[in-house]
Design a protein that fits this description.
single chain; alpha+beta; Arylsulfatase, C-terminal domain; four-stranded antiparallel sheet; two-stranded antiparallel sheet; 13 helices; 6 strands; 11% strand
């Protein structure tokens, strides 16, 4: 039996076994890697082994490789390195032609071409469906405007809550408490000695009686409502610095509008009261969709456009001024030099990254690392904008109160069994590697702590519009 399976013969079309194992129809995750690696070509690397392996051909199995498998002598690190190289090789083959279709009879080729034409008609129908869904979304966004206006009046203190609103809010709070009531910890607290369960239960709800004159906070709204709301979104919270908080305390409303005309997309509007940082009353951020759908049938973000913030003197939160002394070599006099450098800030959100142009890509002006970094920035920017539109604005009170965080935490508690099995296997390999390394070096200090999960979590790229899976998405059944 040959030790290499780098090529597979393709029989004549129409004959036995005419369905060739091509990169397109061969599952990447189930490729029999180990059978093709029975004789590894990468020698093991370890202390004291370099001299022993001198003069040995590279395709000779290690001396300690048993009959049970050619990778046994490599150890866990070598095994993982080999699999990683093969995985990269297979990924490079994905989507490339194997010559199978080219070898079909001319009549069969024409049928394949006709299927592509039928598929193009379906994609046109799918685009029409998505556009109609977008129009339906616009309709219900308009219907929700009075509710958003009413929310603004209550938050700003311009209007008192009605008895009906308070009653509905109390019913919703009771429903939420029943849904999230856990439990053992709450049962233990309620069963504490000397505590009246009925009194404790009543005190756990917000007061539902109408506001009366002279009551504390009767004439105020809800201070720092939008700052707290944004802070309770895991991704946006990472963007907000302590300096930003002072400016975001003046944020009075967040809303969005659909674009009108031929161009599809939406605009986010952040409304501010007068503040000591900038003169803009509204900061805007516009997201544009591409004219065509993505492969999965969703709108794809094309680009984003921000707004110029008119910062007041020495109040630019996206810049930090460094003052340095410079001495003249000839006169020995000194002068102070002010130099501004860019620093992290939530307000950088209004200066979005620019996608690379076709000319930049053709001239290869950006290397692979720069493209990957830019792609990650664009992906994060699109995701934050989509979350503000689909989550923050329609469910602002849930983020302010923390209710939305309970749902996000519940989502994190669940994962695919297959992923958990893979994680367990990785833990075993890591434990083995750590055992091997304990004698050579001390364990490196842990960095990063627990922290918040990255915005978007698992699931790969999210540059498609509507990826959040909110009820507002128009899904085809």
């Amino acid at each position: 039996m040959s030790s290499s399976s780098s090529s597979v013969p393709i029989t004549a079309a129409g004959g036995r076994g005419s369905i060739a194992p091509t990169p397109q129809n061969t599952p990447l995750t189930t490729a029999p890697l180990t059978s093709a690696l029975s004789k590894p070509t990468v020698p093991t690397i370890g202390e004291g082994e370099e001299d022993d392996d001198a003069g040995v051909p590279p395709d000779t199995p290690p001396g300690n490789a048993g009959v049970g498998g050619g990778l046994a002598g490599l150890g866990s690190k070598g095994h993982n390195a080999i699999l990683g190289l093969v995985q990269q090789r297979l990924q490079g083959l994905m989507g490339q032609s194997s010559g199978y279709i080219e070898g079909l009879p001319s009549g069969t080729k024409k049928r394949v071409l006709a299927l592509k034409g039928v598929q193009s008609d379906y994609e046109g129908l799918q685009l029409q469906y998505k556009k109609e869904c977008l129009e339906l979304e616009k309709k219900y966004t308009a219907l929700a405007e009075p509710l958003y206006s009413r929310r603004f009046e209550i938050i700003s203190g311009k209007s008192l809550p009605t008895a009906e609103e308070l009653e509905k809010g109390h019913k919703q709070e009771v429903k939420d408490k029943e849904e999230f009531s856990d439990s053992d910890e709450e049962d233990e607290e309620e069963g504490e000695e000397g505590a009246d369960p009925a009194e404790k239960e009543a005190s756990s709800f917000l007061p539902s009686e109408p506001i009366i004159d002279g009551e504390p906070g009767a004439g105020d709204g809800i201070p720092q409502f939008w700052l707290t709301t944004l802070r309770n979104h895991s991704g946006i919270s990472e963007l907000i610095t302590e300096r930003d908080e002072k400016a975001l305390e003046h944020l009075t409303n967040v809303r969005y509008e659909h674009l009108s005309g031929e161009k599809m997309g939406f605009k986010l509007l952040f409304e501010f009261s007068e503040n000591p940082f900038f003169t803009n009353g509204v900061l805007e951020k516009t997201y544009f969709y591409q004219d065509e759908l993505g492969y999965e049938g969703d709108f794809i973000f094309d680009r984003a456009a921000g707004v110029t913030i008119d910062w007041k003197a020495d109040q630019d939160l996206t810049k930090e001024i460094e003052i340095k002394k410079q001495r003249n070599k000839h006169t020995n006099k000194t002068r102070l030099v002010r130099k501004a450098r860019t620093v992290p800030s939530f307000f950088n959100f209004f200066t979005p990254p620019e996608p690379p142009t076709e000319e930049q890509l053709e001239n290869m002006e950006l290397d692979e690392e720069e493209l990957e970094e830019l792609d990650a920035k664009l992906e994060l920017d699109y995701q934050i904008g989509e979350d503000i539109k689909e989550k923050i604005i329609p469910r602002a009170i849930d983020y302010f109160s923390g209710k939305a965080l309970r749902y996000e935490m519940d989502d994190e508690d669940y994962s695919d069994d297959e992923d958990e099995d893979d994680d367990d296997d990785d833990d075993v390999e890591i434990d083995r590697d750590e055992d091997d390394d304990d004698e050579e070096e001390e364990e490196a200090p842990r960095r990063g702590g627990g922290g918040r999960r990255p915005p978007g979590g698992a699931g790969g790229k999210r540059n498609k519009a509507g990826a959040g899976g909110e009820p507002g998405d128009c899904k085809q059944q």
